[in-house]
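# step 3/5: fold
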Amino acid sequence: MAKTALVTGAAAGIGRACALRLAQDGIAIGVLDLNIEDCERTVAEIKAAGGQAVALKADITQRGEVVAAVTKLREAFGPVTIVVNNAGMTGFVPFKEITDQQWDRMMEVNLKGTFIVTQVVLPDMEAAKWGRIINLSSSSAQTGAINMAAYSSSKGAIVTLTRSLAQELGPLGITVNNIPPGSVMNTIMSEANKQRFQIPEEVLLQTIPVRRMGEPEDIANACAWLASEASSYVTGQTIGVNGGRVVS
């Protein structure tokens, strides 16, 4: 039976790569982002390769918009039993300078947005007695990061949310895992980091055992495995895709 997936933040970077990769496995894709024009470009790529996809515009912090987008996806392709919670935001502020508004916004997008999207699609998974929830956290959730207390905290909460949902939803046939990317190039966040820190690539590579930067496709490959039947005995796990930068 054909499956349908919702991928958030899928207009570019890791989200786009995950959408393209899942479509290769015959999964119909809801390409969701605030940037509908880039969503349409991702959809066009999927369709050009013979896949099925629909562009969806929604702010993941607004439940009404998420409900409307998921309804459109269901109408196009049926129940949504796979969700990739990739949409998020970053920020670099010394801890003592973080305002209440900055802290709240980071939690609203990265944590509450994931909560809303997952809750909206959950009934389809419950009805199917099968589901895959794949959350994108961050290697900074594992290590912490200077001037990123709000961001790291929000992503650390995603790790804990993943563990909690895995225990609660496992008996229903739903697995929940998270991928914390590390040093992935060609994403909106990585380009912002490059401009901010201007660290020579040869210096950065010395911190990565495999001696190369990650690509969005590296994350997408792990995502595809977690979305498949092959990972049915894996839940509540942190699947580090970071070239060995974080070793546990």
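# step 4/5: annotate
The chain has one domain: 4-231.
# step 5/5: archive (pending)
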